[in-house]
Amino acid sequence: MIGRLNHVAIATRDLAAATRIYRDTLGATVTGAVPQPDHGVTTVFVELPNTKIELLEPLGENSPIAKFLQKNPGGGIHHVCYEVDDIHAAVKQMKEKGATITGSGEPRIGAHGKPVVFLHPKDFNGTLIELEQA
After folding, report:
1. Dist CA 128 CA 31 (whole Å)
2. Is 130 a residue of the active site?
């Protein structure tokens, strides 16, 4: 069901500093910062030849990233995102197999403008999984 790895998301308290590390130290191409109010984050994407790194900074106190950073003050990997051909078929299959979909369980528009869902880490070896329609 899952396709290629779309991105690995890294939470940070300082998006500008994290962006400089990837751009200036590692020489990567990075996008500008984009607020994602529906998800409570500001994102920057690091473009790599085979995938992307998504840098996440909390957008407000109620951000899920703020909660993650309370538990992980130094930041770190927040989730991995895999592409799927049909997000609705993927949701149906996940529900049939007993996986927990976070939130309402319905796809929402993600940072790439495509439908996404998140699968609870308790069902996936402690890793938050994002599924994004390709």
Report:
1. 24
2. yes
Claim: this prediction has a pTM higher than 0.90? yes
- Nearest partner of 110 among 36, 16, 4, judged by Cα: 36
What gap in Å lies between CA 107 and CA 103, rounded to an integer? 9
Report the distance separating Cα 90 and Cα 127, nearest Å: 18
Token pair belonging to 48: 């790599």
pLDDT tens for 48-105 read: 999 999 999 999 888 999 999 999 999 999 999 999 999 999 999 999 999 999 999 9
Give the active site residue among 57, 83, 130, 132.
130
- 5-11/52-58 β-pairing: parallel
Q: Which domains does the chain have, with CATH numbers?
A: 5-133 (3.10.180.10)
At 11 the three-state DSSP class reads strand
Main-chain dihedrals φ then ψ at residue 51, nearest 5 degrees = -170, -165
Please report, in angstroms and rounded to a whole number, the separation of the first and last CA atoms in the chain. Answer: 12
Q: What angle do CA 30, 35, 37 make, to 5 degrees?
A: 150
